[in-house]
């Protein structure tokens, strides 16, 4: 199995979600199932079926997170050589060469990616084009609308 790169913050978020699922949600679902069972006939009991479905989802998510946690490769950006290169977990400020607009992205793992928060997956076309490049470099990103050329204005290790 391949290792899964993740930021320190991302690893803590997965551990927190797992803890909540096991310590809060799972016991509540068990209680909901017991309450629904007490109402009688299980064939016609919508509460029971809904609780069993939620239990199935919860158990599946627990297994998924446990599997991911066993394969995580936590990358702490503060311990990386801060040499101006774009690497996993850095925050990169880019300028579109065509229209001179600026945008910043943090390069993160798949589970952490959220474009609305400026976090892009390390497997995205932009991140793949940026990896290994340095401040001042121009990179070409193969986007669905065509190639976009960016200049790397700043690489932050935060």
Overall description:
The structure is a single chain. The model has no long low-confidence stretch (mean pLDDT 92). A hairpin with a 5-residue loop joins strand 3 and strand 4. With 158 residues, this protein is of the alpha/beta class. The protein has three helices and seven strands. The strands form two sheets. It has a five-stranded mixed sheet. The radius of gyration is 22 Å and the shape is elongated. It has two domains: 4-75, Transcription elongation factor, GreA/GreB, N-terminal domain (Helix Hairpins, Orthogonal Bundle), CATH 1.10.287.180; 79-156, Chitinase A, domain 3. The protein has helices spanning 8-38, 46-71, 125-130; strands at 4-7, 72-75, 91-96, 102-108, 119-121, 138-143, 146-156.
């Amino acid at each position: 199995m391949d290792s899964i790169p993740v930021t320190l913050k991302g690893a803590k978020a997965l551990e927190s979600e797992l803890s909540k699922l096991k310590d809060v949600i799972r016991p509540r679902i068990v209680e909901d199932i017991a309450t629904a069972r007490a109402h009688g006939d299980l064939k016609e009991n919508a509460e029971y079926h809904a609780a069993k479905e939620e239990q199935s989802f919860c158990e599946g998510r627990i297994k998924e997170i446990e599997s991911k946690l066993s394969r995580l490769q936590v990358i702490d950006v503060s311990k990386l050589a801060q040499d101006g290169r774009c690497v996993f977990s850095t925050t990169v400020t880019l300028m579109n060469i065509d229209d001179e607009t600026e945008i910043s992205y943090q390069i993160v793992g798949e589970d952490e990616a959220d474009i609305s928060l400026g976090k892009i997956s390390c497997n995205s076309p932009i991140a793949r084009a940026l990896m290994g490049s340095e401040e001042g470099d121009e990179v070409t990103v193969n986007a669905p609308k065509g190639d976009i050329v960016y200049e790397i204005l700043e690489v932050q290790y935060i």
